[in-house]
Structure formats: structure tokens, C-alpha cells
Amino acid sequence: MQGFSYKCYWKRKGIKMRSLDFVYPLRLPLLVEIADLRSDSPSQFLLRSVREVSQYMEIDYVVADAGFLNLDAIKEMPVKTIVRGKSNLKRSKELSNVPLVEKRYEVKDKVYVAYRVLKFEGLYYYDVVYVKGKPRHFIFVTNFEGDPYELAELYRLK
Prior knowledge:
CATH class: Alpha Beta
Largest sheet: 9 strands, mixed
Number of domains: 1
Distance between the termini: 14 Å
Low-confidence stretches: none
CATH topology: archaeoglobus fulgidus dsm 4304 fold
Helix content: 10-25%
Number of helices: 4
């Protein structure tokens, strides 16, 4: 299985540095770009980069942060994509109205205890609750359906 991660390292004085990294089974910077802030958006960069790389190698999934991504770009991705969200993520209000499903799943350093899933306009919104010292949760969006806990662990590879 091969996975990729998108990062935007910094923005300063009209330029930004961003990369597409190979994350599994080993970590490897794959594509680094220094661009001015007027160049394509992070969503366009990610979409363009994944399309370009997928011509030369098989990509099983892409992992990214939602802070700067347009969720419509996820629908256009040619591969499975997982995007970690924030509490102000679009559809998080609707997601919070979905009842929690209780299911225990233990991994090395935490215990997943519940999740909820909302399918909306071709995207899957997940809210996963886990205990690591104290109860916590995080939200992520995918363009494919999967086991919430396996997807959460896949995101941790990032």
C-alpha cells in the first residue's frame, strides 16, 4: 500500500512552499514546489500533483489537512483521499446531529469508542471518538466509504 501526504510548510512575503510526500511504507519527499501566492490554490496544486504522480506510480490514497483545501477538489481526486477537518468544517453541524455508534477498537496508544458518519453529496464525513488519557475526537472527510477506525489509523500515518 502506498500513501501520500500534502503539506504547506510556510507562507512568507508573497511565496509559499508546499510538498507532496510519500508516507508509507517509508517517508520520502516526492514533490516540492516553491510558488508565489498568486499561483494555483492548495486544492489545485494537490489535484494537479496527484494526477501527475499517478501517471508514473500507483497511489492507494492521499492524506491532507482541510485547513486550506476546497472540499469540492476531493470529489475530483483520481484516488482515495482522506482530509482531516476542524470543528468548523462544512457539514460538521449536520454530522453532530447523527447519533453515535458505540464500538470499541484498541490500538497501541488509544482506544476508539464511538463514531458517526454522514454521507453528503458524494463525500463521507466521519467523527471519531477515542480515549487517550481523556476522551477526544476528530473529524475527517473522505471520497470513499470505509471503516471509521481503520481510516483514522490511516490518517495517523501522516
